[in-house]
Design brief:
Largest sheet: none
Number of domains: 1
Oligomer: single chain
Number of strands: 0
CATH class: Mainly Alpha
CATH architecture: Orthogonal Bundle
Structural class: mainly alpha
Number of helices: 10
Order of helices and strands: HHHHHHHHHH
Helix content: over 70%
Strand content: under 5%
CATH topology: Tetracycline Repressor, domain 2
CATH superfamily: Tetracycline Repressor, domain 2
Distance between the termini: 80 Å
Amino acid sequence: MAQASRKTGRQAQPSGVDSRQAILDAALRTFARAGYDGASMPAIARLASVAPPLIHYYFETKERLWRETVEHSLGGLRVEASAVLGATRSLAPLDRLRALLQAYAEFAARCPDHFSMIVAEARADSDRFDWLQVNYTGVLFDEVVTILGDARAAGVIRDIPVKDLAVIMIGGILVHFTIYPPAEAPPADNPGAAGFVDFLFELMTMGVLAE
């Protein structure tokens, strides 16, 4: 009976779950550094320390692996952002914005490779990047733009292009934690997610000129 169970592949479910997670982590790192075209299934398998056929068993194709890697990377952020927006709906626009950017910064600190993966697809000018924008990055960007628009309409911020401001704020968060991953950055260069968002707000409200 035990032998038959091993043949079905059902007995080792915990290790299978671990293997699938290892593949997704390795795929994220590989797609971030090599891009979709430069990433290979054998390279991902080596990084994940699994046999290459196991990737095909779980994900079938490279395209499906890429899409599930995106969900693995950005799906959690989308859920967190939705929760933050729901919990802060009654707050003033800038308080909502701070909370949302805090969620973005905490995610970027945990998962710095996701920005590199997005940039790789933007450079490739592929249909995959369009899909990313429709399902993930564009949705998150539009949430920030909407809040900034509310703040501008309320007279809290000046009449400035809110899309450009959103690019600066989100881009600043993503670039910072890509260059200075918390595990690698010295304390002086790593204010943490909360500290960096505070810094962004200070720049936005007070500028950089000395009094």
